[in-house]
Amino acid sequence: MRIRLKRLDRADQDHELVFGVLSLTLLFALSFLALKFPAYVPGCALYDSTGIPCPACGSFRCGAALLAGRFGDAWSVQPLAVILSVCGLLYVVYSWITVLFRLPRVRVEMTRREKGLVALLAVAVLLVNWVYLVLRESV
């Protein structure tokens, strides 16, 4: 794995602009609106039909707890959502700073094997979080 700073050329894709500034900022805004108007948020179809929580169950309750500053409650409801929210927020801040000030961008280069290991790790983390949610529901 190689991490480097790179100035963008015209041919380079601006991931920070597309994902950080536009997409994630919009996602945070929509999440904020969903938390302010919870009646418009649909329930979990898997939980409603089987009683088993899906890997994302509790994400809106977690977001509401995070916005209220109750980090312990948010962590107990949905730990993965807390981690992803913090990482997403950090990426949005990084993206806005690099886009506004036209700074070099962080680029990570990985081999095919390293990409596979990262994907495997992501699936393992998702499964561990899901097991946590299922066990918490059964207690």
Describe this structure in words.
Helix 1 (15-36) packs across helix 5, helix 3 (59-67) packs antiparallel against helix 4 and helix 3 crosses helix 5. The chain has a two-stranded antiparallel sheet. The protein has helices at residues 15-36, 45-50, 59-67, 71-77, 79-101, 112-138, and strands at residues 2-6, 105-109. The protein starts with a strand and ends with a helix. By secondary structure, the chain is mainly alpha-helical. The longest helix has 27 residues, at 112-138.
Q: How helix-rich are the residues, as a percent range? A: 55-70%
Shape category: globular
Order of helical and strand elements = EHHHHHEH
The end-to-end span amounts to 41 Å
What is the β-strand count? 2
Q: Summarize the biggest pleated sheet.
A: 2 strands, antiparallel
